[in-house]
Every structure is written in C-alpha cells, then in structure tokens.
Amino acid sequence: MTVVVDARHLHRRFGKLVAVRDVSFQVDKGEIFGVIGANGAGKSTTIRMLCGILRPTSGSATVVGHDVLQEPEAVKRSIGYMTQRFSLYEDLTVEENLRFYAGIYGVPRNRRRERIDAVVARVGLDDRRRQLAGTLSGGWKQRVALACSTIHEPPLLFLDEPTAGVDPISRRRFWDQIHALAAEGTTILVTTHYMDEAERCHRLAFIFRGAVLDQGTPAQVIARRRLRVVEVEVEGSTLEAAAALRRLERLDELSFFGTVVRIALRDEPEPTARVVGALREAGLRWRRVDEARVSVEDAFVAMVHEDARREENAA
C-alpha cells in the first residue's frame, strides 16, 4: 500500500455552518503531509473526520486501508493521534503515562517495557521518567505526548497543531523527531498555521474557509503563484516608502520587517528595477534593494488574494 490516506470530496456541516467543503487529497507512505491554514480554516475538522472521530456530512475517505465511515474503530486502532491539548494525566509520572497509553493502544504486555524504553530514548526523556507530567514545561509535555502517540508503532501519525504555544527551540527539536519517524517509514499528517513549518513538509494542502486552495510540494505551490519578492531597506520613513511602493502595478503584498519593506509582485519580470523606479520617482533614498526568496507564507497570502479576486469577479 502506497496511499495511506485517501480523502475524497469531504464535506462537514454544523447546522448552517459549512466547516469543510469538498476536500480531497492523498497521502503516500512515509510522507510528511501538511494541511496548512489559518485558525478556523477547517484543518482540525478535516483531521477529526479522517481519524474516525467525526462523521463526514458527505464524501468518503480510507485511512490505512480502512473506510472511515464503515470502520471508524479500525481506523482509531491503526493510527497515532496527537493534538495541541494532548490528554496527559498530570498527576501521573512520565513513565506512568506511557504505561497507561501502551495499555490503551493494545501494546502486548510482554512488549510494553521494550516500547516504553524505546520511545523514552527516542525523545530524550530518560531523566524525566519519574517526574510528574503536570510539572513539565510545554516543550517537555510535547515530547511525552509524541512518545505516547507513537508507543504502539502506528503506521500513520496525525499531528493536529502539535507545536502551538511551544518555544522555537522545542519546535525545531520536535520537527527533527518527525523527520526521523518519516525516514523510518511512518506516514505523518500534520496541521499547522505556522508557515515556516509548512516548508518542512514533503507536500502540502492549503485550506482556506474550509476548501483546498492548492496542493503540492512547497516548491510547486510557490512556483504556481508566479511571485517575485524584493526587500528594501530605506533611509528615512518606511511608511513613506510603503506609500510609494503600494502604487506599483502587479503588487500582491507589502509587509514590514523592522526597517525592511518586503514587496511581493505578481507576474513581474523585472521586480528590482520596478521597485527602484518607484523609490526614485518618490524622491526616496535607500540603503539596499535585493531580490529575496519567495516563501510558502508569500504563496499562501497570494492564494488568499486570488480567492478574494475570484469571489469579487463572481459577485
């Protein structure tokens, strides 16, 4: 089996609210697949349907060979599931939590010690085994949650906003663990609204207002936006420079990064020349004007703008 997740035209309504609309994608074995979008976009609802927790209003999906509508319990037994608010028992030690989840996930008794030792070593919890989970910091709790959700060696791991509220160092270490798991053959589906994390995935699906705007590798998604990005460090007011640069044709987005103004232009063959021309016309001086790498965040913002233009034209 190469396709581990196959979602086909998933819809989910809550009364009059359409939370997910016509979502389709496939996730291959050993892949890190990111479902990317802002808070409230429909990411968690999609994950809950794929985990067999929430029944789709319409559409279908198979997960690890099991139909989510007909075999939700088989789906749950075949996956690991970790959320931002993973249910650790704070009055139990790290090892007691692991022992509990080993039982919940059906790890045979004669293998539980071996599996606990393995996940403790993997995520670096040796010195914390006897510490109460409630006394751990957010980053350490995250490690325990990952250990608990992988103790039964699931072929597929769902991570729903797993790094929200975690410090940058812990986030990086967490992603190192994710890539190590994927290299060993575990398929991982992760939701996040952090665009820097999106660039760590093999492939992506971008969700906005419950619908998939685009999907593919980070490079493919970026290329389809046809953006060029220029960064300007001006002498004087960045607001004055921004006012001049906002008059550029083909401007997709303008943003501030300290003393730098970042300009994304769409379908512009000579972005640096255009920016320099706008600054000169406004009588402004600059320290540097450089073309920069287009990021996944630039691409996502451009997709949202594209969606708004389609809606406006359809009105």
Description:
It is a single chain. This protein has 315 residues and is an alpha/beta fold. It has two domains: 3-216, Rossmann fold (3-Layer(aba) Sandwich), CATH 3.40.50.300; 222-314, Alpha-Beta Plaits, CATH 3.30.70. The chain contains eleven helices and 14 strands. It has helices at 43-50, 72-78, 94-104, 109-123, 138-150, 168-183, 195-198, 218-225, 238-245, 271-281, 296-314, and strands at residues 3-14, 17-28, 32-36, 58-63, 66-67, 79-83, 156-160, 187-192, 203-208, 211-216, 227-235, 251-257, 260-266, 285-292. The longest helix has 19 residues, at 296-314. The two termini are 44 Å apart. The model has no long low-confidence stretch (mean pLDDT 94).
Short summary:
The chain has 315 residues and is of the alpha/beta class. The protein contains 11 helices and 14 strands. The protein folds into 2 domains: 3-216, Rossmann fold (3-Layer(aba) Sandwich); 222-314, Alpha-Beta Plaits, CATH 3.30.70.980.
